[in-house]
Amino acid sequence: MLAQQKFMILAGVASFFLLVGIWHSYSDEGAGLRAIPGMSSKGSLLRQNIHALFSAIRHPMTEDYKDVSGTVYKLPEAPRWTKPLGKRVLIVDIDTRVPEGEGEILGDKVIDWEKHQSVGGGLVSNGIMDHYLFAQIHGYDYKYYHAKHIAGHYDTWILPHILAELLPSYDFVISFDADVTVTRPEVGFEWLFNRWNVTTHTSISLPWDIEEQRPETGEVLSTDSKGVIVFNTGLVVVQNLPLTFEMLRAWGECPTEKRYKGCAQWKTAWSHEQRAFSEYIRYDFNPQGDNIVPIPCDDAMSWPGATEQYPGRIISDCRGTFFRHHTLNKQMPKQEFTNSVMQMVAQMLQEEVREDREGIWINEGKRG
Question: Where are the membrane-spanning stretches (predicted)?
Fold first, then answer.
């Protein structure tokens, strides 16, 4: 691609970050979705520009991945997912909060990134920008779902029934918590499915939680009643299969105790729907062994330095290789988002300058 074309596209992406703060919301009462103008399924010049700009560094889904440090992440010899899934994948942020305050993505004023705070509606705004950009890079669909509070339940219980509502329209629905950032946006889910051994039988895939304990007592907080590490629901992948809908129904109805005695405690007790899934659902919905596929903790949990930042509390050194979940530090997503985007832009600018060296480089010693 010509240098002029590349920089025109780069300008289009820059406009994305300048304009996000002046988008307004409107409600789709039937679907329950809170949509953002410019984010419809029809596509726009901006989305096309994002997809085209990052095509140069989008990682091939069937090749081993080497990061900037030189670390190589290998795939199985015969990768299963070999073609882009595109709009058959939905990336969704599900939240009861509406980020329409000052300096938030649905607010009336343009976001001042220097003053942007990654808390509350600012955290939700950060998540939307991060996950929306990632979706456009890989051609996935994106939605923000503004959910209603379920009486008597902690707000994260919205997850099971909303996943079940959205899934019929897609092959895969992937939900992120607002405090999850994409570490390597150039790596798509097709590659990750190959790495994680997600199969055509996999109903759900989610990461092992970090190992966490109470520093004062040593009480382990991250295991179920059988002593098995729990799953974390900050990143959840569900596939459109009959078993998936049965599983999501059982999960959502767990607190009624019609099927699982004792589950009602997790309506409000930590860790809510996450603990209910790990305590009951995972033991009943994995008949073939690959219906529930764990994601390595190091791939999708925590961040580098977490064990030093929270000594005696976080005891597993998971580093968020592909996704970082900032469970204890909500201020970090802003900087993580900045770093991941600038890493991609820096790579592209480096390539561009190298290609155009003869045109821009002046060597004083060679001037005649």
Answer: none
User: How many Å apart are CA 318 and CA 309, to the nearest integer?
Assistant: 13
Identity (one letter) of the amino acid at 117? Q
Residue 357 has pLDDT above 90, yes or no: no
Strand partners, 205: 237, 293
Task: State the Cα–Cα distance between residues 278 and 221, nearest whole angstrom.
Answer: 13
**CA 305 – CA 280 distance, rounded (Å):** 32
Q: How many C-beta neighbours within 10 Å does residue 63 have?
A: 12
Contacts of 288 (CB under 8 A, 6+ apart): 201
Whole-number Cα distances in Å, 171 to 157, 204, 209, 333, 361? 23, 12, 25, 28, 49
Token output for 270: 């930590």
For residues 318 and 302, the answer to whether their CB atoms sit within 8 Å is yes
Average pLDDT of every residue of the chain: 86
Specify the 3-state DSSP secondary structure of 92: strand
> What mean pLDDT comes out for the span 122-149?
94
pTM of the full predicted structure? 0.85
Residue at 212: amino acid letter:
E
Nearest-5° angle of CA 84, CA 179, CA 171?
Answer: 25
Could you give the domains of the chain? 3-60+82-355 (3.90.550.10)
* pLDDT (0 to 100) of residue 344: 87
Helix (H) or strand (E) holding 146: strand 141-146
DSSP string, 206-251: EEBPPPBB-TTT--B-SB-TTSPBPB-TTEEEEE--HHHHHHHHHH
